[in-house]
Amino acid sequence: MKRSVIRVIAPVVLLAIVGAACGDDDDTETTRGSRLTEVQGADSKLDQVIAADVVKCGVRDDLPGFSVADEAGEHIGFDADFCRVIAAAVLGDATKVEFVDVATEARFTALQSGEIDVLVRNTTWTASRDGTEGAAFVHPTFYDGQGMMVAADAGFASIEDMDGAIVCVAGGTTSEGNVQSEFERRGLAVEVTSFEDVDLLQEAFIAGSCDGWSSDVSQLTGLRSNYPDGPDALVIFDDVFSKEPLTPAVIDGDSRWYDAVNWAILATVQAEEYEVTSENAADSAAGDNPAVVAFLGGANADGTVVDPGLGLAPDFALQVVTQVGNYGEIYEEHIAPLGLERGVNALWSADEPGLQYAPPYR
Amino acid sequence: MTTAAPERRGAGSAHQTASRPPPWRDVRYLTWTFQAAVVAGLIAFVLWIGDNLDANGLELDYGYLDRQAGFPIADSDFRLTQPVSDALLEGLANTGRLVVAGVLLATVLGTLIGIARLSQNFLLRTAAQWYVEVIRNVPLFGIFLIMYSGVALTVLPHPREPLDWSGVLYASTRGVAIPWYEASNVRFAVLVLIVIAVFVGAFTVFTRITDRTGTPYPTLTIAFLGGVAALVLGWIILGLGITAPERQGLRASGGITMTLAYFASLASLVLYTSSHVAEIVRGSIQAVSKGQGEAASALALSGVQRMRFVVLPQAMRIALPSIGNQYLNLAKNSSLAAVVTLPELTKITQLAIANQSGPAVPALFLLLGIYLCISLTLSLIVNVLNRRLRIVER
After folding, report:
1. Does B351 sit within 8 Å of A171, measured CB to CB?
2. What is the rounded distance in angstroms from the CA atom of residue A172 to the CA atom of residue B353?
3. Is the pTM of this model over 0.80?
4. Interface contact B1, partner A, CB < 8 A
5. B389 reaches A (C-beta below 8 A)
C-alpha cells in the first residue's frame, strides 16, 4: 500500500516542480515580450527618459577632473557636467540626473541592458566598440591621447631611450595594446605590466618596478599633480602615441535618443562659438543676432521659433548654457585646474584652432 | 485501495510502519524527489538566465575568441595580433604554474605545521598555533595585497641598488633571478623524468627490501642521494648548460627571473592554504588511534620513524579528501592573482573584455567554465589517489 502512495504522490510532486519551472518561464516570456515592444515600438529611449523624468548617466567616481564623487555622493567633473547638459536639454532641468557608477568591464553591458541611458565615462570611441558592443558614439567631448610618464631622474628623454623598458599601465583599457604597438613600431622591446588599481601601480612605480607609466595624457596630468614626491619628480613626454577621442555613447539603433544626446552636447560647442555664456545667455536669446536667437529658441522678429525637430524643446540650448555652461566654461572649470591646456580641444575657429566643431544649427 | 487515507494508515498498519517509514521519511523516495527537484531547478535557472540575456539584448556569441587580442601579456612571447583564444591558453598556463607549485608547497608546509601543532616543544607548538589562527582568519585578498606591496615592494631593493650576489642571486623590485639551465626544454624534461625515476625507483626498492628482510635502511636519504647523483650525471651527459643572472642595466639578464606578481601570488596562496591543510593534518593525526603511536614506541621506533611509518600513513588516509577540497579552493583562489598583475586566466579575461575584443557576459561564462574544468580535474586526481590509498577490505 505504501508503494502505491508513492506512486500517486511522486508524479504529482514532479508535475508541480516542472509546472513551477514552466511558470517561471512564462513569466519571463511576458516580460521579454513587453520589453521588446518598448524598444521596437514608437517608444524611443527619449520618451522613456521624459516619462521617467530622470537621465540615468553611467560615470566613474574616481577620476579627478572628469568625474569624482565627493563626500555627499555628488559627482563633480567634466563628464559629470555633460550628464547635466543632457538632462538640461531633454528635461529642462540639469539636476535631474541619476549618476550610476559603472566599472570599466561592465560599462557597455550596463548600456545594453538599459541600466543606464547614456555612458559618459571617458570612453574612447573605436571601430570595434562601435561595431560589437551595441553602442553608438555621439560627438567626442574630449580629444585625448595616450602618453608616457617617467621619473625625472631616470635619464629618459623620449620613448626612443626606453628600449627594453617595463611600462606599467592601469588596465582595463586599450592602453596596454597601444604601448606595445608604439614600441614595436619604433623597433623597441618593451614589457607591459597591467595593473587593475592606480594606487597599487603608483606604489610599484615608486618602488622602481616600472620604468614608465602610460595612460591618457589627461589622466597622467592629474596623477602627476597629486604625486607624493611632488609633480617635479615626474616628466610627461610630449609624444602622444594614440588617438583617444573620449566620447559619450548611447544604445545602438535608437536614432531619436542618439540625436537628442548628440545635439545637447553639440549645443555647448555651438554656444562657445557664438560666445554665449551662462551669464549672457538669457540676454542673447532676446538679442539682435537672428542666428543666436534661433539657436537659443527665442522668438524672432515675426514671433516664430525655430524647431529643428530633434525632439527637444526649442529653447534646449538656452537651458544647457544657463544651467551648466558652454564648452569653454565646462573645460575651464574642470580640466584647466589639472594643468591641461585647451590644445586640440580648442574651437576650430579659435586663434590656435582645435578640433571642436559643431555642424551648423539651422 | 490505491489512495491511502491517513487515519486508516495511522490506526491499522503499525507493523507496516515499523518495516517501512512514511514517504516523507523514506530515504529512497526522498533522494529521488530531491534529485528531481534539483534537476528541475537547474533547468529552470538556465532557461531563466537565457531569457534574461535575450530580454537585455545580450548574446552568447563566442566569435570573439578568434578575433585579434590587441593586448600584450607580460613575461611571454604573445603577440598583439594573436587571437583571444591563444591569450586564454597563455593565461591557463600561468594559472597552471601557480596551482601546481601552490599545491605542492602548501601540502609540504601545511603538513609540517600540522605536525608542529602537536609538538612537545611549547615554542614550536604555540608558533604553529598562531600561524594557523592568524592566517586562516584573515581575507585572502588582504594577504595578496600585503604580499605584493607590503612585502615584495618594500623588502626588495630599488633596481638602482640591487641585491647582487654575482652569478647566484640577483634581486630587486623587478624580480628575483637565480641560475637556470640553458638547453632545450625537451632535454630538461628528460632530465627531470630521469631524476624522478631514480628517486622513486630507489625509494621503492629499498622499501621493499626493508619490508622483506626487516633490516632498516635510511631509505629517504639513499633515494635523495640517488636523485642528486642522477641530476649531476644527467646534466653533464645531456650537455645542459647553466646561465647565471648578470646585471644588465636595471634588470638581470640570464638565469630565470621570478616576477613579483608570481612571487606574491604563490606566497599568498601557499600561506593561506597551508594554514587550512595544517588543521586537517593535525585533526587527522589525532584521529589515528592513540594505541598505534604507543605500539610504535613500544617497538622502539624513534619519533620520526613513528610518524613516518605508523601514524602519517594512517592519518593521510583520513586527511586526503579534506586536503583535496583545499586544493580546489587554491585553484579557485588563484584568480585573485589578477589583482597583483599576474596575467593568469582571470586577468586575461578582464583584458579581453576591456580591449573590445571580448564581450563581457560570454567571456565570464567561459571563465567560470574553465575554472569548473580545473576543479573537476583536480577532484578526479584526488579521488583516484583516495581510491588507491583506501584500505583493501576482503
Report:
1. yes
2. 8
3. no
4. yes
5. no
Under a CB-based contact definition with an 8 Å cutoff, are residues A98 and A74 in contact? no
Contact B82, B336 (CB under 8 A): no
Q: Which residues of A touch B51 (CB under 8 A)?
A: 25, 28-29, 32
Closest CA to B345 of B72, B96, B104: B96
Exposure of A43 by Cβ count < 10 A (0-12 exposed, 13-18 middle, 19+ buried)?
middle
Secondary structure letter of residue A152 according to DSSP: G
Distance of CA B77 to the CA centre of its chain: 26
Nearest CA in chain B to A4: B2
Which residues are CB-neighbours of B1 under 8 A, at least 6 positions away?
A: A1, A4
User: Would residue B71 be called left, alpha or beta, if left means φ above 0 and alpha means ψ between -120 and 50 degrees?
Assistant: beta
Taking CB atoms and an 8 Å limit, are A21 and B47 in contact across chains? yes
Among B residues 53-82, those touching chain A with beta carbons less than 8 Å apart: 54-58, 64, 70-72, 74-75, 80
If contacts are CB pairs under 8 Å, which of residues 71-130 in chain B contact chain A?
71-72, 74-75, 80
Dump pLDDT digits (tens) for A130-185.
887 789 999 999 999 999 999 999 889 999 999 989 999 986 677 888 899 999 99
pLDDT tens profile A247-265 = 999 999 999 999 999 999 9
Torsion of CA A335, A341, A347, A351, to 10 degrees: 150
From CA A300, how far away is CA B129, in angstroms rounded?
A: 85
Query: Cβ contact (<8 Å) for B40 and A20?
Result: yes
Up-side HSE of residue B54: CA atoms within 13 Å toward CB?
Answer: 15
